[in-house]
Amino acid sequence: MTKRDFTAAVIAGLLIGGFAALIAKSLERESAFLYDLGLNGWRLASIVAACFGIVCLIIAIGSFIGRKVKTVYEAVKFLIVGGLNTLVDFGVLNILILIFSAASGTLYTIFKAVSFIVAVLNSYAWNKLWTFGSHEKTDAKKIIRFFTVSIIGFGINVIIASIIVNVLAPPAGSSETLWANVGAIVATVASMVWNFIGYKYFVFHRKEGTLFVHHSERKS
């Protein structure tokens, strides 16, 4: 593992932990489990520490396996970035819901669109600089392809989330805010599958022969 990868993993782990704690705190009044748990400062810090530890463990395992198969290491980094993007999406969404006190209707659709756009910008930066393109120059075609894939993923994400929240009725006993997050989860899974396929094989597709790590790359 390079110093660059180690630094990126540390930053990603702290961001993931921070957003996870933020989301948990925002849903504390909507979830009986979280409310009974009592999310004080110590427990929120524990969430951050746990997420950080999990990210460090994942990147360490990926780095070990990736010594032989480079694609595995890329997939692990993509997974970490995907987790961060998801939490950025949910974090921004819940902040907007909290500020404007609206968890359904047209405002929810707007909030979901805004949160997804922020997550896409985060995704572009991390995937370009770390997951796939950290050693490559900026390529206009690659940027256009990235945003093309992301725009399609954006449509998938917002449409699915809006259908679940605004068309399907929430289960009995579920609040609007909790159901809004369920819609976001399902939409995120669908868009992440699309984005992985698009980024891997359309945007950051590598030429044949780069699957395995060469000896010169291991030393860098």
UniProtKB/TrEMBL annotation:
Membrane topology type: Multi-pass membrane protein
GO BP annotation list: polysaccharide biosynthetic process
Record Pfam families: GtrA_DPMS_TM (PF04138)
Database matches in InterPro entries: GtrA_CellWall_Glycosyl (IPR051401), GtrA_DPMS_TM (IPR007267)
Main location: membrane
Compartment(s) where it occurs, according to its Swiss-Prot or TrEMBL record: Membrane
Membrane listed as a keyword: yes
Membrane-spanning segments: 44-66, 78-100, 106-125, 146-165, 177-197
Residue ranges of domain GtrA/DPMS transmembrane in the record: 77-204
Gene Ontology annotations for the cellular component aspect, listed alphabetically: plasma membrane
Keywords in alphabetical order: Membrane, Transmembrane, Transmembrane helix
Similarity remark: Belongs to the GtrA family.
PANTHER family in alphabetical order: PROPHAGE BACTOPRENOL-LINKED GLUCOSE TRANSLOCASE HOMOLOG (PTHR38459:SF1)
Protein name, entry field: GtrA/DPMS transmembrane domain-containing protein
Species name: Candidatus Wolfebacteria bacterium RIFCSPHIGHO2_01_FULL_48_22
Taxonomic lineage: Bacteria, Candidatus Wolfeibacteriota
